[in-house]
Write a structure and sequence with these properties.
five-stranded antiparallel β-sheet; 21% strand; 159 residues
């Protein structure tokens, strides 16, 4: 499966890998969005070179894949899964990347808080379901269903 998603009205090519069960994104498309570089390919090559010198393993784990280019031809492009992509974004020295970096830091901090206090995770889950338009009754049933499933899973693990 191949898709194009839009971010701020700009295209990001992605491919679903059935065996890995994850999306892979065209790195150069994200670099283009975050930097407004005239030549995002050259920007990515230079960033990749700098990251390799720093010993960044994320770059080593990025692989090439043939994807349809703007001219309609299939060309090799570096791809990254979501985790790799988030790590690369943290390394992009661009003012356009700063809001995204702040958001990543905020989300990371919130998850650390949830580890310390799991009730915060439950509260966040309720808020997300509410934002998606689910009724309070549905949310309560969902929360109870999760709790029952967790209890049953613990019973089977003990047995």
């Amino acid at each position: 499966m191949s898709n194009i998603i839009l971010f701020e009205s700009k295209k990001v090519r992605r491919v679903w890998d059935e065996s890995d069960q994850k999306w892979y994104f065209a790195i150069i498309d994200v670099i283009s969005i975050l930097t407004d570089s005239v030549n995002p390919g050259a920007y990515w090559r230079k960033l990749k070179e700098r990251l390799k010198k720093e010993g960044n393993e994320t770059v080593t784990n990025c692989h090439g894949l043939r994807m349809e280019a703007a001219d309609g031809k299939m060309r090799m492009t570096d791809i990254a899964d979501a985790e790799q992509l988030l790590r690369l974004i943290q390394s992009v020295p661009s003012p356009k990347a700063e809001p995204f970096k702040r958001w990543l830091a905020k989300v990371g901090y919130e998850r650390l808080e949830e580890i310390e206090n799991p009730e915060l995770a439950a509260k966040r889950m309720r808020e997300i379901y509410k934002q998606k338009g689910y009724s309070d009754d549905w949310i309560e049933k969902r929360m109870r269903g999760i709790a029952v499933r967790d209890e049953l899973t613990e019973i089977f693990v003990v047995i």
